[in-house]
Amino acid sequence: MSRINTNVGSMLAQRILRNQNFDLSKTMERLSTGLAINRGADNPAGLIASEKLRAEKAAITSAIGNAERADQVVNIAEGGLQEINAMLIELQGLVTETANTAGLSREEREANQLQIDSILQTIDRVASTTNFQGTRLLNGSFDFTTSGVSSSVRDFKIHSAKLLHDESRPVQVLVTASAQHGALFLSAGAGALNLSSPGAVFSFDLGGKEGSRVFSFASGTALSSIATNVNSFRSVTGVSAFASGNYLGFRSAELGSDHFVSFRMIEQGGQAGGVFHASASDTAMVNASSVRTLSSLAGGTETIRDMGQDVRAIINGMTATGRGATASVNTDFLDLRLTLTDAGAQSLSSIDAMTITGGGAVFNLGPKVNILNQVSIGVGNIAIRHLGGHDVGGFLNDLGAGYKANVVDGDLEAAQRIVERSIDLVSNLRGRLGAFQKNTVGATIRSLGVSLENTSAAESSIRDTDFAAETAKLTRGQILVQAATSMLGISNNSPQSVLQLLG
What we know:
alpha+beta; 10 helices; about 40% helix
């Protein structure tokens, strides 16, 4: 058929050429941008998925930055603590050196005191000036805040507590088994020794955690006098004594399974009576069923020992680890250690210990902003007035000139205990920060790095151009466009054949 008003062949060629040009344009766009999806129309579902993956990549990248920033903060804090630790070790040497009073003049002791005062001032200065971008790290700014501390709590330390915004967390302690001293009782039948002869000797070996010592007494010695003598060696043995009626009690200085009392009879001297363990429920009472007569122990071949018992408790529904009167829990949401008073640790009851109201150094180490991705760590005040403890005789500032543990005329034993406790506190804090860096921050950075790689690969597979495939499409498209163009030209020329019919 030959028509000139409507060139169907040309129209067909135009449509095909238009489609080929569109496809070629798309291919060139993908090759020039490197993206398979440049607008929603290219792949609506793929665009939604890739944008979500892009958002995840941004969050993961920021989380890696947060973890690296946390590592930097801890590095600065640990550097300050390292210097403080070095000064505490120097303090230890000065205290020990000054204890050699017969070999040092007063002028030398005063010179050592000047060094100690300088060290104490430097520790306070380091604690107050160590900072990250103006935020003080060692002055208690990152310690947890509490309220309503129970009178049954003697001491506590909150290492970590995750709290929601404006949340407070009560800490409840349920004592399920009381802490106990190691304790033994010696019955003498009267308030004084009654040996078989005036020249007889009553001798025994008494031991505890710190060591042992042999005690010897003559007939007629009052039990109260024996207790006084034993107590004068409490720091040597770790055992104290008390007289009650016809009984002489021996008790470990501290609560817990680390402490004990051991008794070995060396010479009985004809003394009647026996040795008893303490009651299972109360160390101030005799367990009458546990008696061992002194005559059966004569000769020193057998040692009677009674161990202390650690407190067992449940803290906020979690079974705590007990040591002496101290109970501790360590979970992702709460990591704390608290020491109960003797009365609190020996009473089977529920204690509203305290309420954690806030504080701590909070780091968001995950891509989501929620409590699961947050890590909090407590860094207490490292000033000298906070290093030490009442149970060791005071705090580090007590070593200053004029205070009770100064090295010129103060209590040097207390001074050494305070310094040792301070070294323990600083070393433990450095260890916790180191564990946080290694096991929390380091592992988080490595894990997030893998997540970033996998997320990037997933996003790339959806959105990035496959250059091999698109190059092949480009070549195909160019050929088809050329072919369509050629066919369009032929179609446009075909109506001219009608002129032949007109002669």
